[in-house]
Amino acid sequence: MFLENTVNHKEQFGWIEVICGSMFSGKTEELIRRLKRAQFARQKVEIFKPAIETRYHDEMVVSHDANEIRSTPVTSSAMMKLLAQGCDVVGIDEAQFFDDEIVTVCNDLANSGIRVIVAGLDMDFKGNPFGPMPALMATAEYVTKVHAVCTRTGNLANYSFRKGNSDNLVLLGETEEYEPLSRAAYYAAMREAAPKTHNKETSVPKDDLK
Question: Which residue did the predictor score with more confidence, 15 or 177?
């Protein structure tokens, strides 16, 4: 559960919030919602995203339902620490694409009194923990896991199934490349997609039987 509440208001501190889930689960939408609330409160907000993320816009963070907020594309985690000086709130989208240093950067920002809000995929298309996300979730004060709706069963979905044959870990795409699936639907789809092996009798040359 995410709480925006403190007891000792004299203490100067920051914290880390992680929003995670599958494709089409509303991660970026929730990130934008929290950041816009901070902007309405006249807090100084800086938003970052990986430079490779250009599906909707080069500089805007855009959710699947077209909500957007201006951001700064960066090529490394270290750049965020330099650009976030003097901020009250820092937002980071698609955190799974950043290098492992993002964990140290987020903790350093939080330790300096900044509220850090991070959104990213918690699992890759193979169902494995994605990049630095596990470490970010472990060190965060608040973790919110959001879910999509399974396109095959209508149940809650927390897996991102890749429809194509590419084995690249990073492959930007939308509904033409990915679909959100429940656990049962995901593993059924993975079994169907796996190459089928047929047991064939091997003939042994007669000379080898001697």
Answer: 15
What does the DSSP 8-state code read for residue 183? Answer: H
Cα dihedral angle (90, 95, 101, 103), rounded to 10 degrees?
Answer: 70
How far is residue 58's CA from residue 129's CA, in Å, rounded to a whole number? 27
Q: Which residue has the tokens 């700064």?
A: 72
Q: Is the pTM of this model over 0.85?
A: no
**Set 94, 176, 177, 201: catalytic member:** 94
Could you tell me the end-to-end alpha-carbon distance of the chain, in angstroms, rounded to an integer?
A: 72
3-state secondary structure of 203: coil
Range list of H helices, the chain: 27-40, 77-83, 102-111, 133-139, 183-193
CA distance 177 to 145: 22
Q: What's residue 170's pLDDT? A: 55
What SS3 state is found at 184?
helix
94 catalytic residue (yes or no): yes
